[in-house]
Amino acid sequence: xxxxxLNNTKRTILASVLLMFIAAGCERSVDGxxxxxxxxxxxxxxxxxxxxxxxxxxxxxxxxxxxVDNQTFFGIRGASMRFDVPNFxxxxxxxxxxxxxxxxxxxxxxxxxxxxxxxxxxxxATLGNIGFGQDFLGNxxxxxxxxxxxTTNWRKYVIPVPDPSFLTAHQGLLWYAAGxxxxxxxxxxxxxxxxxxxxxxxxxxxxxxxxxSPQTIFVGASTAVTGLSxxxxxxxxxxxxxxxxxxxxxxxxxxxxxxxxxxxxxxxxVGQGTAQITASVGGVNxxxxxxxxxxxxxxxxxxxxxxxxxxxSIFSDAYENAPVDFYNGFYAPFQTTTSNDFEINGxxxxxxxxxxxxxxxxxxxxxxxxxxxMTHLRMDVFFPDDIPPNSALGIRIVNDLGGNETxxxxxxxxxxxxxxxxxxSVDFDITGLADRSQLGxxxxxxxxGPGLQGSTLYVDNIYLRR
Amino acid sequence: xxxxxxxxxxFGVITxxxxxxxxxxxxxxxxxxxxxxxxxxxxxxxxxxxxxWTFDLGTGEAIGLPGWGNNELQYYTDRPENVRVEDGMLHIxxxxxxxxxxxxxxxxxxxxxxxxxxxxRFEASIKLPFGQGIWPAFWLLGDDSxxxxxxxxxxxxxxxxxxxQEPRVIHGSVHGPGxxxxxxxxxxxxxxxxxxxxDFYIFAIEWKPNSIKFFVNDIMYNEITPxxxxxxxxxxxxxxxxxxxxxxxxxxxxxVSPQTPFPQTMQVEYVRVYGWDG
Lengths: 466, 278
Prior knowledge:
The complex is a heterodimer. Chain A is 5% helix and 43% strand. Chain A has one helix and 33 strands. In chain A, the strands form six sheets. Chain A has an eight-stranded antiparallel β-sheet with strand order 2-5-10-7-8-16-15-12, with no helix packed on it. In chain A, a hairpin with a 2-residue loop joins strand 20 (273-281) and strand 21. The longest helix of chain A has 24 residues, at 2-25. Chain A is globular. Chain A starts with a helix and ends with a strand. Chain B is mainly β. Chain B has one domain (31-275): Jelly Rolls. Helix content of chain B is 10%, strand content 40%. Chain B is globular, with a radius of gyration of 19 Å. The model of chain B is unreliable at 1-30 (pLDDT under 50). Classes of the chains: A mainly beta, B mainly beta. Chain A binds chain B through residues 5, 8-9, 12, 15-16, 19, 22-23, 25-26, 28, 30, 32-33, 46-47, 73-78, 191-192, 199, 201-202, 204, 233, 235-239, and chain B through 1-7, 10, 13-14, 16-18, 20-21, 24-25, 130, 132, 163-168, 193-195, 197-198, 259, 261.
């Protein structure tokens, strides 16, 4: 076996010498074939670990999920990286996940444009996340692919580097996180893990998921450019899209007297008007934009005056809030409401956009609220845009959700105070709900006034009082 | 594992170098086609030169060839959005937009009735677009004698056809009676390095009696002679015209994917024809 390898190597060297001779013979310059000078080691795991790598599992992951497998490998010899994803309920850890970090201060990988590897799995399975740039030191240049589909055969995978010029001291060479599928764990293997320079082309960065994403906002608020991705076309013609960290992007504001944007894509609203936040990667403009519509100075909701002793707060900066599962359940498939919560001068506001209905819950991983002593549900609501015709806001509070479920609902219409441009203080008498001992859900809806669908609303100071 | 990786790489290198040498060792191939008899250098910005080019318009339905005989999806126009000369180059642009009942627009220009010839070296310097379902071509079609002779009897020479989903591969083919459409006589050429959608490449044929040689840059990757075709050789008498087009979808390339980016542009630096000296 070893002798064969040696023979192969000899043959290879011989062939190289022969080639050089031929090349010289036809006086043809062979551009691009000269030996690249390796500024640093692009290898992560070939037949074994490259020097200086450290394995750092995530907290709560199965610490022994990773082993070096000498029985299974790509090619004719060597070893592979083996990962055993635990079954659901495994006491050793709920998932498998780790980073592989260079502990010698990093590598200069600016001359490579992709992380590549061969992978296969014990059964057709989906690897939750895999990528590079996680180093537990800020993860500044993190890149990942979500939901990488693996087969039972070795296949080569490519993760493009959005702009390799940033990888001058690259430490986070590889990271992954994988959980069980339908409760079942699985095993997957990686081999020939390395950085390469490939014929990638047609770079297509994108922000805000490639959409022109409008956001109505106030002076003093901050928000962020999100939905950052980068698509490249592989030599075989396939596109690969990765999630890419903001550090690869250069951000720009079309109107810095309205909004400024920093190198991490964080936007600060400084004046009234509109501004378009755009981005580029390596000189290529990203698709999508964040369209800031600043309404000017923010008018905060009136500060609540109820005695904290008479209040159970769900969302307010004036009181200590009870634990809540979420302020937007994103109920599939009929909910359109998205969240765009923001904070102005320490005052947190719930922002709901493209509204049809939304649920706030406190019953899943947190205790339900015993509101037996409480008589009213209070909240402040603000509609920044004109109220469309046939609009009404429904507010429902639910006791013993999914059990012996009861609820009460009120409707705010233009006839009883639904206006735009000013805070509406709702004070809803909930004593009609006989059992208030296991309150678990508040629903805002547009059922009684569908004209409201698609609107933006801000909500603050949600609490029960007596 | 190392060895396994290195060996295929070397094979690639050998192919590249030996092909390169082969052309260098055949200088006579160039001298057979010495006189430049037709050219468009696309030097004047604006519409294409009407003395050199005409247009095929619509979906082919008007001439009884819906989808241009290949289930193609585009509607051809002569608008500047689809065909124009800019920065010294011809741009043919496929767009995703609805015209009539088509979801895509593009352009197809041809020299029919303006320049037709038999034999010669036909070459064009082209940078190709990319993406699933994009089908650009640089090709020749034989004269139909006023509609009395029909395809494939008239003959077709595809100097370059390309699938947008295979950015390193082009095809060169001939179609004739008994060897047309899916049964055309064809050869693939795969770039050993680089991509057709990132640089200009020169696509050419050198055509003389009983021989058509296919080239990418100075690499000859195929020769077709009467011995290679499974029917009558129709390339010794008829005159042929030049066609440049970008199709969308169709039998050769398959459907467009939702991820295919639009617009997609084929850029052509020049088209030149050298007569055969024989």
